[in-house]
Structures are given as structure tokens and as C-alpha cells.
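for the writeup, i need someone to sanity check this before i put it in the appendix. the sequnce is what the collaborator sent (i think, or maybe the updated version? ugh). structure was predicted straight from it, no edits. if anything looks off just tell me and ill rerun, i have time this weekend
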Amino acid sequence: MVASIEDVARLAGVSIATVSRALRGLPDVAATTRDRVFAAATELDYVASPFAARLASGRTATVGVVVPFVNRWFFAEVIDTVETALRKAGFDLLLYNLGDGHGRARFFEVMPMRKRVDAVLVASLVLSDDEFAALSSLDAPVALLGLERRGFLAARIDDVHSARVAVEHLLSLGHRRIGLIGGDTDDPMRFTPPLHRRDGYRDALRAAGIEPEPALEVLGYFTVEGGGEAAERLLATPHRPTAIFAESDEMAYGALRTIRRAGLRVPDDVAVIGFDDQINAELMDLSTMRQPVAEQALDATTRLLAAIGAPEIAEPTTVVLPTELIVRGSTDPSRSVY
């Protein structure tokens, strides 16, 4: 049977409060009493509860992580990186998956993490002023991943610029009719990539003297199935695109499958470029924009932990990490591995 603090107090002949103070090393305990408590704790093989120790210190040693979804590649990578960094620092992770618009509204209304975490990391959500105010009311350090706001520390990539580079690559290959497979910009979860990557796509076309066509912008919902269905709609247009920019590799995988099932060649008939450089992108011979997901998450977590320890000296700055154009056979046949 595991010994309790009550057992230690009974054996040492002191109160529970005295046992707690003695084991925490507080100065208001006589040396003889402390020795008696330590001897009792040793005899009973008593181990103090980490949770109780955290409460006594006024800290929870826990960081809350807020994500719109857990079943998408980006957020799975973020959670894995953050959890590993926190565990090494002796912190726990408390995950809040918003899931949908109702879950999001309830979260920011109730703020269930209040008094349960020492800091908060919010991943890839476009936040309203009221939501920022709710986070500020926690009186705890807050880190933003994938967006920025004055007064908050943040780590992100430049999604607009990165999307523009992807489309400029297609333009440099001579493509003038370029389709977009993207996320839903009206999604109530309002996460950042669908908004910013669409803007980069449009910016690149306009800079080349091409006016974007609504018929060439199709929703793929950041899934393989959605990307495949979106590619079907693009191929069915009267004047199909010769190239497609997909806002994620998953959607690009679906597009590749649809194009090949239609008897068309990639990239000879339709070129495809994705975004992320997931582990399967090389296997699929997919050109893509590589983004450093783990590096963003680690940077934000490291600075967030520093802010917990010394909030008065932690600078709420934004770090923008670079992306990289990775050219493979899905856009350039000379680089094809097949």
C-alpha cells in the first residue's frame, strides 16, 4: 500500500501542514522536527505528489495548446514537437481541440484553461479582438503559431510569399492557366493558410498580367479526397488548367491521382505543386513548398517556456522562418524519378 502524507504525519507525530513545510524545505520548521519528518518519510518510502508540489509553488507546470483540428498533418506535427519540448522541460501539455465553430465559441467564452496552465500556445487560428482579449485575461504568457499580433510572441512562415513563389515557379515554366485547390476561407474555424495562400496565388497571377478566374479556384478542404474531387472539377472546365497549385500536399496527392486516372500525364498535360513537403511528397515525386513545421513549433515553445520563467524580460517578438521551393517531377519532367 502506498504511504500518504497523513501516514507520515502520524508516524512523525506532527501535523500534515508541518510535513508539507518540512519536505518543501521551508525555514519555519525546527531542525529536530524536520529530521523526524524525513525519517518517517524514508521509513514509509513516501514520495510527495508532484501535483501537490506544483500547487504549493503556484505553478501548474502545464502549457495549454489550442488547435482547430487534431486530425490534420500540420497540427499533428505541431503537437508532437511541442509535447516533446515540454516533456524535456518537465512540463505537461493540456490539449484543446476546438473541432468546430460551436466548440470554438464555447472555448473562448468559458476559457476552461484558466488557472490550469502556466502559458498558452495557439496554433494557426485567425483570432478576433474578443478572442485576443480572452487570452490576455488569463494573465499568462501566450504564444501564437502561424500568425502574429503586437504584444504576443509568435513564430510563423510567410504564407502569402510562399504561395506566390509556388505559382511563380509554374509561371516560369510557361503556364498561364493555373488552377487553385484550397481550403475554405469561410470556414468558421478561420485558420490562416486558406486565406494567405489564396492571396499569394492571386498576387502572383496579377503580377504576371493574369486576372484570377473564380472558376479556377476550387475547394479541397485540406484532404486527399477533397483534392481529388477538386481536380475533377478543374479538369471538367471548358478550358482546363495546365497547372494546379494545391495549398497542401494532401490535396496535391488527390489531384495527382485524379489527373492520372483521367489518362493525363503529369506534368506534360497538367503540372501540380503542393505545399508543406510532407514525408510522402518525395515518394509522390511532388514539387512543393517546404515549410519548417517542427522548427516553428519548437521556437514558439522555447520562447514561451522562457516567458514563464522570466515574463519581465521576455520580448513578445515574431520570428518568421523561411520556406523553400522543392522542385520535383510533378512540375519539371527533367527532374522526374519515374
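The chain has three domains: 5-57, 62-157+293-321, 159-291+325-335. The CA atoms of residues 164 and 201 lie 5 Å apart.
thx in advance!!
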